[in-house]
Amino acid sequence: MSEEYRGMALGMFELDNLVACFVALDAASKAANVRIQGVERNRLKSGACVKMRGNVSDVRAAMEVALAAAEPISTVVSHNIIAAPAEDTEIGVEMTILK
């Protein structure tokens, strides 16, 4: 795992529109103390998945703002927060970011 994210919660959301992902990610980063870990475009569609890191309360606040910003312009496909990702989860997260 990248040491810069050790001990941080992981928040993920997927939208069906890449532009909406950037709108949501901008809102999230302004709303709370989070770091954007990656944006991954969907291979079969026009959407993307955003991964952000921070403490649990900051990730939760950022997620709420991001989804509220995205909902008028996009469909929220999925979203979740992992408070303390396991080491094996971290490996999977890094593999998808570097694909």
Element layout with pairings:
Blueprint: E1 9-15, H1 18-31, E2 35-41, E3 48-54, H2 56-70, E4 76-82, H3 87-97
Antiparallel strand pairs: 1-3, 1-4, 2-3
Helix pairs in contact: 1-2
Report on the architecture of this protein.
InterPro entries: BMC_dom (IPR000249), BMC_shell (IPR050575), CcmK-like_sf (IPR037233), CcmK/CsoS1_BMC (IPR044872). This is BMC domain-containing protein. It is found in: Bacterial microcompartment. With about 100 residues, the protein is of the alpha+beta class. The protein is about 40% helix and about 30% strand. It contains three helices and four strands. The chain has a four-stranded antiparallel β-sheet, with helices on one face. The protein starts with 8 loop residues before the first strand and ends with a helix. The model has no long low-confidence stretch (mean pLDDT about 90).
Order of secondary-structure elements: EHEEHEH
Describe the sheet with the most strands: 4 strands, antiparallel
Return the domain count. Answer: 1
Rg result? 13 Å
User: CATH superfamily assignment?
Assistant: BMC (bacterial microcompartment) domain
Side by side, the strands of the main sheet go 2-3-1-4
Q: Output the structural class.
A: alpha+beta
CATH C-level label: Alpha Beta
Shape: globular
CATH topology: Alpha-Beta Plaits
Number of helices: 3
CATH architectural grouping: 2-Layer Sandwich
- Mean pLDDT, all residues: 90
* Residue windows where pLDDT falls under 50 for at least 5 positions: none
- Spatial gap, N to C terminus: 15 Å
